[in-house]
Write a structure and sequence with these properties.
This protein has twelve helices and twelve strands. By secondary structure, the protein is α/β, with parallel strands linked by helices. Helix 3 (42-50) runs parallel beside helix 4 and helix 7 (132-144) runs parallel beside helix 8 (162-168).
Length: 271
């Protein structure tokens, strides 16, 4: 039975997590054991619950409870469920709720790189990718196109940011992932038996369909930040530099679009 609370006072402190806390405040780096994130929409919330994430509270449109939302309420137990009309929620959160439901959830401890890569043949490395929309789109492509795990550098966007989760359609909860604890991730991957392939715009780069790439037993596909791409030192330290051929004078793809092409060719087509 849902522990329902009708919202009348928008300044109530229990609503801070939805309306007044920034993404960085939710992460709570000073006390990571109490870090939170916000999952939006019944689909994303359901996939988080399937993956074992712990719900803390729910904020929802009390006037329009869909079948999917009702199912979520049955799954979350007796945690607080805050409900109000759609117009009130829009005023409270500053945006229209996708499918009328948000859920605050606890952040679990990050797994180690070794745990994430155990049994993996193809992994994606996201170096300093800052846009949460791109991070979410890359995770969705990775889940769909044969990538076994995703590894991120600490300077990039957090996969548990609300927008990244929404764009990923919750696939972030379906793939093993973690954030590198140190900068020298090249050595960490090489120690685990991975060869590394830098996606970069260089004339001497291998064509993405080069058979040498497909023959690699364990390959890490390395993608760089928006605009500048991969750091020069990263390209130098990678075992391969790989390009996607372009036509009509186009010099490059958005990193999320490039990831889908790379994952299809280097992951799905290599199995």
């Amino acid at each position: 039975m849902a522990n329902l609370h009708e919202i009348h006072d928008l300044s109530a402190p229990e609503l801070d997590v939805y309306a007044r806390c920034t993404e960085n405040q939710l992460v709570n780096r000073a006390d990571p054991a109490h870090g939170l994130f916000i999952a939006e929409s019944p689909l994303v919330i359901s996939r988080a619950l399937d993956a074992g994430y712990e719900p803390v509270s729910v904020l929802m449109d009390g006037d329009h409870i869909s079948a999917a939302a009702a199912e979520i309420l049955e799954r979350v137990g007796d945690i607080p469920v805050y409900a109000a009309a759609d117009g009130v929620l829009t005023a409270l959160t500053g945006f229209h709720l996708t499918r009328g439901m948000l859920c605050a959830m606890r952040r679990p401890p990050l797994p180690t790189v070794e745990e994430v890569c155990r049994g993996a043949r193809r992994v994606a490395v996201l170096e300093n990718i800052m846009n949460p929309t791109n991070v979410g789109a890359i995770f969705r492509s990775a889940a769909a196109l044969g990538v076994d795990a995703v590894l991120l550098t600490a300077q990039g966007s957090d996969p548990l940011y609300r927008r990244a989760l929404r764009v990923s359609m919750g696939t972030i909860f379906q793939l093993p992932w973690t954030i590198f604890p140190r900068e020298d991730w090249h050595s960490a991957l090489h120690a685990l038996g991975f060869r590394t392939a830098a996606m970069a715009l260089r004339h001497d780069a291998l064509h993405i369909a080069d058979p040498r790439l497909a023959r690699e037993e364990k390959l890490a596909i390395v993608l760089g930040t928006e605009g500048d791409g991969l750091a020069r030192d990263t390209i130098t330290r990678c075992d391969y530099t790989v390009r996607i051929p372009m036509t009509h004078g186009v010099d490059s793809l958005n990193v999320a679009a490039a990831s889908a092409v790379a994952f299809y060719q280097l992951s799905l087509m290599s199995r």
